[in-house]
């Protein structure tokens, strides 16, 4: 929620950039934007719920994470950031407070207020980032946006494994000096492989710093599982997706059951994220995507009988399901 009274032109530009970037993302580890609601005094962004707490609090409560657990979480974050970069966006504010748990063991990247469209060859001049996660090149006139995200990932992984950030100081000046020098403590309990990948991400020279898509190939992450991006459906209903995708057809059928006709869906598509009908469509589509991914996972692990049983239960109890979900129609 944002108060319009406190919005200057710069804040408005950042808000538009946040919405534009989230509209492009289709990844299970990136928070999903459902709807934008405008009132006379406020702007609301209706997003996917992830109430499991921040990574910052999770690590602080435990002191530090064992490498196998950090690897499981970090691979999800790397997958999300790589997806952003492949889509032509950078985040520019990667930090533990912007990583939240949707459920135990699953995290999502949030807060795209500083996100910006940026190709790998582009250079930027304005810099947004928490000072503790800022790359040394922030002092330069121009910098590579993709590489500052990679540097922040290095600080993030160090924090997960050690419980503190690699660089600190009593003042901003001392912090900048520590970052510029690049010297940090490497605990004895940290494996050589973990130390190596951190050093590649914290390389002071952005030209030799590892790329985001190269991080996945690093030895330390060789056994990590990387979530796949969601199928690339349009976030507004259209006949092309309806004809080619079973997931989209299920979403349309549910909305028809809710009393939202095909004509209403197509008309609402013209208003995009600002339409309440589109908001409901995106919520249902997101649920169906999650259900489809779960079914595929069950099949690949050899539990086809469970899938069949679940489908049969769905067919036997359609009225009960609709009754339990019909309250969402009140949002319209």
From TrEMBL:
One of its GO terms (biological process) is microtubule cytoskeleton organization. It comes from the Eukaryota. SUPFAM superfamilies: Protein kinase-like (PK-like). Residues 301-311 have a biased composition (Polar residues). GO terms for cellular component: cytoplasm. Residues 314-326 have a biased composition (Basic residues). Keywords: ATP-binding, Nucleotide-binding. Residues 292-332 are annotated as: Disordered. Residues 1-221 form the Protein kinase domain. Pfam families: Pkinase. Its cofactor is Mg(2+). GO terms for molecular function: ATP binding; tau-protein kinase activity. This is Protein kinase domain-containing protein. The lineage of its organism: Eukaryota, Metazoa, Ecdysozoa, Nematoda, Chromadorea.
């Amino acid at each position: 929620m944002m108060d319009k009274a406190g919005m200057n032109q710069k804040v408005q530009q950042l808000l538009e950039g946040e919405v534009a970037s989230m509209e492009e993302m289709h990844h299970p580890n990136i928070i999903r934007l459902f709807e934008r609601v405008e009132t006379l005094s406020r702007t609301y962004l209706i997003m996917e719920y992830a109430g499991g707490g921040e990574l910052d609090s999770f690590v602080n409560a435990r002191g530090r994470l064992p490498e196998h657990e950090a690897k499981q979480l970090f691979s999800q974050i790397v997958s999300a950031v790589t997806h952003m970069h492949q889509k032509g966006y950078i985040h520019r504010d990667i930090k533990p407070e912007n990583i939240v748990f949707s459920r135990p063991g699953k995290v999502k990247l949030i807060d795209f207020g500083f996100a910006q469209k940026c190709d790998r060859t582009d250079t930027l001049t304005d810099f947004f980032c928490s000072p503790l996660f800022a790359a040394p090149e922030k002092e330069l006139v121009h910098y590579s946006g993709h590489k500052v995200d990679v540097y922040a990932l290095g600080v993030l992984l160090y924090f997960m494994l050690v419980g503190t950030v690699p660089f600190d100081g009593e003042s901003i000046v001392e912090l900048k000096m520590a970052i510029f020098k690049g010297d940090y403590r490497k605990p004895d309990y940290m494996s050589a492989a973990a130390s190596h990948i951190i050093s590649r991400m914290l390389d002071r020279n952005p030209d030799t710093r590892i790329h985001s898509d190269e991080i996945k190939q690093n030895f330390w992450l060789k056994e990590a599982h990387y979530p796949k991006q969601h199928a690339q459906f349009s976030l507004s209903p259209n006949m092309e997706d309806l004809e080619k995708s079973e997931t989209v057809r299920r979403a349309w059928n549910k909305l028809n059951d809710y009393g939202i006709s095909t004509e209403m869906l197509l008309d609402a598509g013209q208003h995009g994220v600002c339409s309440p009908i589109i908001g409901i469509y995106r919520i249902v589509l997101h649920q169906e995507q999650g259900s489809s991914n779960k079914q595929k996972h069950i099949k690949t692990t050899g539990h086809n009988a469970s899938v069949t049983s679940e489908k049969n239960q769905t067919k036997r109890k359609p009225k009960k399901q609709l009754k339990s979900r019909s309250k969402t129609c009140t949002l319209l």
